[in-house]
């Protein structure tokens, strides 16, 4: 009878150590997730009206979204997230005419300002 109580006590103590509240306090590594096409500011600034679809695709890569209902519209999206929280999100929408030439581009990837290079970095490279 004492063996049963001892085994029961050990089981209860062992199972109580596996509570989810204690597991949630343990820090775990959260993977950085990068999705979409990286929209480099220099590449986005090099887009010119009149460029063909092939030229745009060579610069930016395959668009993330090609809407079958709007064949003349390409959508690019770039997202960096960690632990289910978005750290960076950039969007770019390109519009083409019936001949496949770039007409118009819009989105926050165009308005984003390039990051200034510090002089310390320039001195190290020279």
TrEMBL record:
<dbReference type="GO" id="GO:0030674">
    <property type="term" value="F:protein-macromolecule adaptor activity"/>
</dbReference>
<comment type="similarity">
    <text>Belongs to the BamE family.</text>
</comment>
<keyword id="KW-0732">Signal</keyword>
<keyword id="KW-0472">Membrane</keyword>
<dbReference type="InterPro" id="IPR037873">
    <property type="entry name" value="BamE-like"/>
</dbReference>
<keyword id="KW-0449">Lipoprotein</keyword>
<keyword id="KW-0998">Cell outer membrane</keyword>
<comment type="function">
    <text>Part of the outer membrane protein assembly complex, which is involved in assembly and insertion of beta-barrel proteins into the outer membrane.</text>
</comment>
<comment type="subunit">
    <text>Part of the Bam complex.</text>
</comment>
<dbReference type="GO" id="GO:0051205">
    <property type="term" value="P:protein insertion into membrane"/>
</dbReference>
<dbReference type="GO" id="GO:0043165">
    <property type="term" value="P:Gram-negative-bacterium-type cell outer membrane assembly"/>
</dbReference>
<feature type="signal peptide">
    <location>
        <begin position="1"/>
        <end position="21"/>
    </location>
</feature>
<dbReference type="Pfam" id="PF04355">
    <property type="entry name" value="BamE"/>
</dbReference>
<feature type="domain" description="Outer membrane protein assembly factor BamE">
    <location>
        <begin position="36"/>
        <end position="102"/>
    </location>
</feature>
<protein>
    <recommendedName>
        <fullName>Outer membrane protein assembly factor BamE</fullName>
    </recommendedName>
</protein>
<dbReference type="InterPro" id="IPR007450">
    <property type="entry name" value="BamE_dom"/>
</dbReference>
<dbReference type="GO" id="GO:1990063">
    <property type="term" value="C:Bam protein complex"/>
</dbReference>
<keyword id="KW-0564">Palmitate</keyword>
<dbReference type="InterPro" id="IPR026592">
    <property type="entry name" value="BamE"/>
</dbReference>
């Amino acid at each position: 009878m004492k063996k049963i109580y001892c085994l029961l006590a050990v089981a209860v103590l062992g199972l109580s150590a596996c509570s989810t509240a204690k597991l949630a306090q343990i820090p775990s590594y959260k993977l950085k997730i990068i999705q979409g096409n990286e929209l480099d500011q220099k590449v986005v600034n090099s887009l010119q009206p009149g460029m063909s679809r092939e030229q745009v695709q060579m610069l930016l890569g395959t668009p993330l979204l090609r809407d079958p209902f709007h064949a003349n519209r390409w959508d690019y999206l770039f997202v960096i997230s960690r632990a289910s929280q978005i750290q960076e999100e950039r969007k770019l929408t390109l519009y083409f005419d019936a001949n496949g030439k770039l007409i118009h581009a819009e989105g926050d990837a165009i308005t984003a300002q390039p990051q200034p290079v510090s002089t310390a970095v320039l001195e190290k490279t020279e």
